[in-house]
Amino acid sequence: MRPAAPARPRNPGFADYLQIGALSVPSCMELAGSPPIVINPQSDTYFGAQTLKPYIRYCQLGSVHENEWRTVAADEFVILKATYGEPQPLSRLRWLFSLVQGAGELAPGYDPNSKFRLTRWPKTEREFPRHLRIATTMMQGPGTPAEIATKSDTPLPDVNDFINASLESGFAELHNGPPSGPDSGAKSGGLLDRLRGKR
To answer: CA 61, 62, 65 angle in degrees (round to 5)?
Structure first.
């Protein structure tokens, strides 16, 4: 019997560079027509636009090679800090990636008939006003995505996206047992791995 061919290594995507230690020095990436993003790996923060929606295009990229990032020199870093103000936690971009990568579906390994709940009140982004209704409903008690969508009067795809982002950020959990699959939860990057695997 012929042995199975080894799995081809996955090309890195944008989310890979959002992990602690992925970049060794402050680095910048810029897409035409979008604001640049400057990641400071030493502090797990980034400089850039104050809003998140301009970075959706970054989250939708396929493969991102390391040479698409350029090192930011110390003097330029000072200028960027003055331009964009206080750094923002890189967790915001990890949250955004999880929000958009599901494309309206739960991350692989989660059963849509399972119940989810919020363990604490999340910081909802003003750019996504429906999230306030979803969060309020989930704080009232666990529910399936369909139940949450009905109670919050929100489209189901928006609820699924919000649950993905909340699971990754640690604000939500599965109420009735662990998800299927080899990974569980976001603490080890399991959810991001599943979402990256969809591409």
So the answer is: 95
DSSP sequence for 23-90: -SS-EEE--TTS--EEEETTTTEEES-SSSGGGHHHHT-SB--GGGSEEPPHHHHHHHHHHH-S-EET
Q: What is the pLDDT of residues 110-153, one digit of tens each?
A: 999 999 999 988 877 788 889 999 999 999 999 999 999 999 99
pLDDT score at 33? 87
Global pTM reads 0.78
- 8-17, 120-129, 154-163: least confidently modelled range: 8-17
Q: Find out whether 164 and 145 touch, Cβ atoms under 8 Å.
A: no
CA 110, 158, 38: angle at the middle one, nearest 5? Answer: 90
SS3 state at 131: helix
Partners of 70 in the β-ladder: 28
In the chain, where the domains are located: 14-89, 102-197
Domain 102-197, CATH number (from 1.10.10.60, 1.10.10.10, 2.60.120.10, 3.40.30.10): 1.10.10.10
How many distinct helices (H) and strands (E) make up the chain?
7, 7
Q: What tokens does 145 get? A: 């995505």
If pLDDT is split at 50, 70 and 90, which confidence band does 179 have? very low
